[in-house]
Amino acid sequence: MRVFVCKCFTIFMTGGMIYYFLEISARHYSHYSMIICGGLATLLCGGLNQMFPKMGILAQMLVSSVIISELEFLTGYVVNIRLGLNVWDYSDMPLNLAGQICVPYSILWMFLSLIIIYVDDEIRCHMYNEERPEYRLI
User: Name one Pfam family in it (predicted).
Assistant: First the structure.
């Protein structure tokens, strides 16, 4: 049980910090809530090939895009709408939902999810001696 908790914490924090610093490099600022959102995204998206070992990488990317968009919406709802912190606002973006998520960023998350999948697999392989999954396109 201790190893499982350590593994989840390592994956969560690594993904959360990558998410946070990617946002800083792109927008020159972020919010600590993005560490939480990114950590959860890494656990959920990175774990897809653990739960569904025959899932192709394209399917993982598509499902990951939905997962990340849902996490972004929930985080935005709490941080931006309920708490009024106005960390981001996608109201000017096409096909947005309450200014918290939009289709262009959902497409971007689909491609960036490759980083999440890779980071999760590298942590599992190198730190916890798990087998590297077999990647298949479809």
Answer: ABC_trans_CmpB
